[in-house]
Write a sequence for this structure.
């Protein structure tokens, strides 16, 4: 690892490298904005992809952008793991402001298996992980 690399380019913890097997009957999953103090509308929905990593951070090139100067450019990611059959959340190990799930702060190298209804706090944003009502995230 190049220690001179910018923090935003340091890797996330390793996740299992499983091939993606999508279930066309699955309506998909989303993160719903619950509150934020950042001007985003409450109820704003961010569909999650099972085929690609979902990177959450403050820069516009992220899958989900949260414009909050306290969070990292690429703060955490959510990926589908076919072996587990669930979405997994991992913090970037170098983040200064921790990510919390259901009020518990995640460790720097912790990988958390998301469950429907989990609440994720990152900076001022509070998000809920839930099933999409319709449509698909494929």
């Amino acid at each position: 690892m190049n220690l001179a690399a910018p923090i935003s380019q340091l890797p996330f913890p390793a996740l299992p490298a499983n091939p993606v097997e999508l279930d066309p009957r699955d309506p998909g999953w989303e993160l719903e904005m619950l509150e934020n103090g950042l001007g985003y509308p409450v109820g704003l929905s961010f569909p999650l992809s099972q085929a690609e990593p979902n990177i959450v951070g403050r820069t516009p090139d992220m899958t989900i952008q949260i414009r909050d100067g306290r969070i990292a450019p690429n703060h955490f990611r959510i990926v589908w793991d076919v072996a587990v059959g669930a979405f997994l959340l991992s913090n970037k190990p170098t983040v200064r402001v921790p990510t919390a799930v259901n009020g518990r702060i995640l460790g720097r190298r912790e990988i958390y298996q998301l469950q429907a209804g989990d609440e994720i706090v990152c900076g001022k944003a509070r998000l809920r992980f839930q099933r999409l009502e319709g449509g698909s995230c494929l």
Q: What stands out?
A: The first strand starts at residue 29 and ends at 35. Residues 36 and 125 are 4 Å apart (CA to CA). The chain has no helices and eleven strands. Confidence is low (pLDDT under 50) at residues 1-10.
